[in-house]
Amino acid sequence: MGNMIPLTYDFAFKRLFLNGKIRKGFISDVLGIPPDEIRSVRLANPFLWKRHYREKQGILDVLMEVNGDRRVNVEMQVRVVACWDGRSLFYLAKLFTERLLAGEDYRRLKRCICISVLGFDLDDGPEYHRVYRMRDEKGRDFSDLLEIHVIELNKPLSGRGIDDWIRLFKAKTEEEITMLETETKNPGILEAIKEVREMGLGRTLRWIREAKLKEIRDRNARDAYVRMEGLEQGEELLSQLHGCLISDKRYDDLARSIGDKEYRKQLYKEYGIK
């Protein structure tokens, strides 16, 4: 199917979870909750509340509320992100605290879970679905209120319950989708396959995909141009500065300006070089 849109694209990933049956199946398989114990999996506002204007905004990919007593953030991260661990903890902590107001009972705090689907490897170990909780040095739980699941797409599968979801997220061709469809009996996966095919047939979503790809290409080209312009401008300013220092016979300052960026800024200001 030439029109298939991979689920590693963020808008396709988000569109997938608009389907309640898919949300329920995914949550059941990843968190190990029997389907008959999941009464509701509703979507929630992914924009986390800011207490003041200087506070960093948190915007989640897909936020769900499960059975009204736990909040689950699901994200797809294809490329390596600097400080990914800190970023994940930031979103989890913000999700955990955003609804508790001053003077309210701590019993109002809901269990918060982050599920990160990664297109890169955190390490060289074989585990591709890991669960992180708060424990002491002997492995005894301190609390189950905070939990992080990491699912790595690129590692070899070993026959676990989430394997079909990983195969689905990685699929790029109709052949891969058809093979998964014939081999699985998971109702959540079968519903997701139907959704993927419908997305592939939708002209609007294909247009969004092409627009997104064009935006990425244009941004990369623009960034490359800005970097090149910045380098050329920087070289011109530095050449002017060195000319002034040599003319004034300030050879010690010339030597220092080569390796000291802050001192170089002072000299630019002194000579009025902009």
Which descriptors would you attach to this protein?
alpha/beta, 6-stranded mixed beta sheet, 274 residues, 2 domains, 8 strands, elongated
Radius of gyration: 25 Å
Main pleated sheet: 6 strands, mixed
Secondary structure: number of strands: 8
Structural class from helices and strands? alpha/beta
Order of helices and strands: HHEEEEEHEEEHHHHHH
How many domains is the backbone divided into?
A: 2
Strand order of the largest sheet: 1-4-5-6-8-7
Q: How many DSSP H or I helices?
A: 9
Percentage of helical residues?
Answer: 40-55%
- What proportion of the residues form beta strands (DSSP E)? 15-25%
What does this structure look like?
With 274 residues, the protein is of the alpha/beta class. It folds into 2 domains: 10-201, no CATH class; 215-271, no CATH class. The protein is 48% helix and 17% strand. The chain has helices spanning 10-16, 20-31, 84-97, 163-170, 174-183, 187-201, 203-247, 251-259, 261-271, and strands at residues 41-43, 47-48, 58-59, 62-66, 70-77, 111-118, 129-135, 141-152. The strands form 2 sheets. A 6-stranded mixed beta sheet has the order 1-4-5-6-8-7, with helices on both faces. It has a two-stranded antiparallel ribbon with strand order 2-3. The longest helix is centred in the C-terminal third of the chain and has 45 residues, at 203-247. The mean pLDDT is 81.
